[in-house]
Design goal:
- It is a single chain.
- The chain has helices at 3-22, 27-48, 69-100, 108-118.
- α1 runs antiparallel to α2 (27-48).
- The longest helix has 32 residues, at 69-100.
- It is an all-alpha fold.
- The chain contains four helices and no strands.
- Helix content is 69%, strand content 0%.
Length: 123
């Protein structure tokens, strides 16, 4: 089995798990699903730089070949951004749970609740 097949299977599995967890419409699975999707994107970006072993990331006079450092820099940046966004999503979901008392993220009931709240009370 080649490394490309293994990584593409891992990317597909992480994407499928992420989408499944997002569709559960609960706060915690949505956060974990978004994390899985970001991991899949990070591995995809990393594999776009070609898989090379024992090659330096910088061109020198003695190196015959080199690995591309750009995908590595993109993945490191994406990891930092993902960590910050995950922390923000966790705080927002905790706040929403404390405000509403529910961790449901579906929008079906909220439209009805807003319509009922806007109605004038009857005298």
């Amino acid at each position: 089995m080649s490394m490309e097949l293994l990584l593409s299977t891992a990317i597909g599995a992480m994407t499928a798990v992420g989408i499944y967890l997002i569709m559960l419409q609960r706060t915690f699975p949505v956060v974990i699903g978004l994390s899985f999707l970001s991991y899949a994107v990070n591995v995809f970006l990393f594999t776009m730089g070609r898989l090379s072993i024992n090659l330096p990331p910088i061109i020198t006079k003695t190196a015959t070949a080199y690995s591309d450092p750009l995908p590595q820099a993109l993945v490191l940046t994406a990891i930092v951004i993902t960590f910050g966004m995950t922390a923000l999503i966790v705080v927002l979901s905790l706040r929403a749970f404390l405000e509403t008392g529910s961790d449901d993220v579906s929008l079906e009931d909220s439209a009805e609740d807003i319509a009922e709240a806007r109605k004038e009370p009857r005298p």
